[in-house]
Design brief:
This is DNA 5'-3' helicase. The chain has 670 residues and is an alpha/beta fold. Helices cover 46% and strands 12% of the residues. Helix 11 runs antiparallel to helix 14 (343-368), helix 12 (283-302) packs antiparallel against helix 13 and helix 18 runs parallel beside helix 26 (651-662).
């Protein structure tokens, strides 16, 4: 749906049209109609206090299109605008490139030069007090790590200690090279563990508090979806007071919020609580919780992974025991504000309460997930994660939908602008709007501002209709032959997107001897270095899985062919998505379309979006899975993709790729 918006003039500030024109000229760009449409739509949504979803294709310049009206609103209201992203890469782009250039360009036209700051969760900042005080150890059991890993962690700890003496921000991301979570946890605290600036001896120089203070004094606060969710759903505000939020990479919002509210119970979480409570209570009381944790450990080790639809009696009794013994420990600790004049003891008690509350509350959630009259009444799903060599099995619990939380906590209090290159699934915004809780009429609007790319002239969507449907036994030989012929026609220059790491590795091993071009596979090195190598050497190919579907930006001749091995439906045994499908069906909906098809459409659109990253880019999207054109749901999936020229004739993409390989290449857009 396309809607025409008219800019609303203001008596004392330049219009968004004027500000956008100044900004575009300052960065050496050119006016794009989609960008103009978007900047007006965002301004009107802010003025009307109406939620807005904007699909803006790659190359639209959507960052400028939402930053310009955001800055204008901050100036006019004297309140910051919060911009939330899903990835660190986009945060860095906003803070290091887009906002500094915009601030310089607009400074002379506005009451003051726009200001901005980045704000992360407390865990991302060094805790000065924990770094210097006798804080309770919360590292995992040493036996889970071999001596080499323990030694490596020790070296990282030493690096953090040296860095702590010189850092001005305490921001973990500024520690290069990075350190493991194991090492970092010894120098950071969660919001629940924090003593608070007024009680902590280091409160006056707390890095997290200083970052929050800076955020309260600027026009634009850049954060992430997880912190946005914590702020919206928590009892205490984390972000400065604000009335407007821009959610970039909005297609990731539901998954990130779900992660924030997912609970975990395992031998590690229980034993951590026991260690935290330590000598603060009678040993016999702590031992009761330890024994309950050992019972849980034995149960989880013997149980098969997957959804736990019905609560086995023995598991129910164990969860009740954990709940009750954790509460006994909480009671034995006494008043929560005791020892407030002794920071060391207060810190130990706060850490103990935090760990015990997590264990107790998660056990309560898991018990409450059962006993409903019907599947339609169930609110949460419990499943067993089988663990790995490094991690023991764990029980997890998550809500079947976060739409109610988002509707009440995020959209109920603020004006929210949601944007991404992929929001219109099946050609409409309805699917994602329902997941966000925006199903009511008149409270939101969705627009597609298009793309500056000429998709039918720049790209071919080829579906290998002649191939067999993909099975569960790895890649069929016909798929490997098809991949080989396509890569040979392209002269390399291929990004292979696979539905699983097993498939990506199998294809890499099978094809390395068959191809005369370099072939990289995700996992061979860090993803960032692999993408860099792929971009710098034209014949090189790169195979990988999920993070490559959404995280690769390689304009120019190094990428001419994107291969997608199969329609990326979630695994049938995925506990959360399968439970959500069943829940939708129990309420009279189409669980497959509402969950699995939406998931596949979103990833397909993201994967196809890797091909055209600049005005000069051309190439082929090759989907090997014939279901994209033969299945009953194919129309929905195809309508979620950019309007490439489509074909099922194998000769057409091969000929096009050969022509592209023979052409002199033009430089990528600046």
């Amino acid at each position: 749906m396309r809607v025409a918006f008219t800019a609303v003039p203001d008596s004392h500030l330049p219009s968004v049209d004027e500000l956008l024109s100044i900004a575009v000229n300052a960065v050496g760009g050119s006016e794009r109609q989609g960008q103009v449409t978007m900047v007006r739509a965002v301004q009107q949504a802010i003025d009307a206090d109406e939620h807005l979803a904007v699909q803006a294709g790659t190359g639209t310049g959507k960052s400028l299109a939402y930053l310009v009206p955001s800055i204008r609103h901050a100036m006019d209201s004297d309140k910051p605008v919060v911009v939330s992203t899903a990835t660190i890469a986009l945060q860095r782009q906003l803070v290091d490139r887009d906002l500094p250039r915009l601030a310089e360009a607009l400074g002379k036209e506005l009451p003051h030069e726009p200001t901005f700051a980045i704000l992360k969760g407390r865990r991302n900042y060094l805790c000065r007090y924990k770094a210097t005080a006798g804080w309770p150890e919360d590292d995992e059991q040493d036996q889970l790590f071999d001596p080499r890993e323990v030694s490596a962690t020790g070296r990282m700890v030493q690096r953090i200690q040296e860095w702590a003496e010189e850092t001005e921000t305490g921001d973990r991301d500024e520690l290069v090279p990075g350190v493991s979570e194991q090492a970092w946890r010894q120098f950071s605290v969660s919001a629940q563990e924090c003593l608070g600036a007024n009680r902590c001896p280091s409160g006056a120089e707390c890095f997290a508090e200083l970052a929050r203070q800076r955020a309260g004094e600027v026009d634009v606060v850049v954060t992430n979806h997880a912190l946005l969710a914590i702020d919206a759903m928590g009892e205490l505000p984390v972000l400065p007071e604000h009335k407007v939020v821009v959610v970039d990479e909005a297609h990731e919002l539901v998954d990130r919020v779900t992660s924030v509210v997912t609970g975990e119970l395992s031998e590690l979480t229980v034993s951590l609580a026991v260690r935290r409570v330590g000598r603060l209570i009678e040993q016999s009381v702590a031992d009761q919780l330890q024994e309950a944790g050992e019972d849980l450990k034995a149960l989880l080790a013997a149980a098969p992974p997957g959804r736990v639809d019905e609560l086995p009696q023995v598991l129910g009794l164990t969860l009740q025991l954990i709940r009750d013994t954790a509460w006994r420990c909480v009671t034995a600790l006494g008043p929560r504000n005791a020892d407030k004049d002794d920071p060391d003891k207060a810190g130990q008690r706060k850490a103990a309460f935090t760990a015990l509350d997590e264990v107790h509350d998660t056990a309560v959630r898991m018990l409450d997930a059962y006993g409903h009259a019907s599947e339609a009444d169930r609110a949460e799903v419990v499943w067993l994660d089988g663990g790995t060599d490094r991690r023991p099995p764990a029980l997890r619990v998550a809500p079947l939908t976060v739409s109610g939380m988002l509707r009440d906590k995020l959209f109920g209090e603020r004006t929210v602008v949601l944007t991404s290159a992929t929001l219109a699934l099946g050609g409409t915004f309805d699917a994602l709007a329902a997941q966000w809780g925006l199903s009511g009429p008149g409270e939101w609007q969705g627009i597609d501002v298009g793309s500056p790319f000429d998709h039918p002239r720049s790209g071919i969507l080829y579906v290998a209709k002649h191939l067999p449907q993909p099975g569960r036994d790895g890649l069929p030989q016909q798929y490997l032959d098809e991949i080989t012929e396509l890569i040979e026609a392209a002269g390399g220059r291929t990004l292979g997107l696979f539905s699983s790491m097993r498939a990506a590795k199998a294809a890499t091993e099978a094809l390395r001897d068959r191809l005369d071009v370099p072939l990289l596979c995700q996992g061979d090195d860090s993803t960032m270095l692999l993408v860099k190598q792929f971009a710098e050497d034209e014949p090189t190919c790169l195979f990988g899985t999920l993070s490559l579907w959404q995280g690769v930006d390689v304009p120019g001749p190094s990428l001419r062919l994107v291969i997608i091995d199969r329609v990326p439906f979630p695994r049938p045994d995925d506990p959360l998505t399968s439970a959500r499908q069943r829940h939708v069906a129990a309420r009279g909906g189409n669980g497959f379309m509402a969950v699995a098809a939406n998931h596949a459409a979103l990833l397909l659109a993201q994967g196809a979006g890797r091909l055209l990253r600049s005005q000069h880019d051309k190439g082929v999207i090759a989907v090997l899975d014939p279901r994209l054109v033969t299945a009953r749901y194919s129309g929905f999936l195809l309508n979620s993709l950019p309007p490439f020229w489509r074909t099922t004739d194998p000769a057409i993409p091969r000929a096009a790729l050969k022509r592209l390989a023979a052409e002199p290449t033009e430089p990528a857009d600046a």
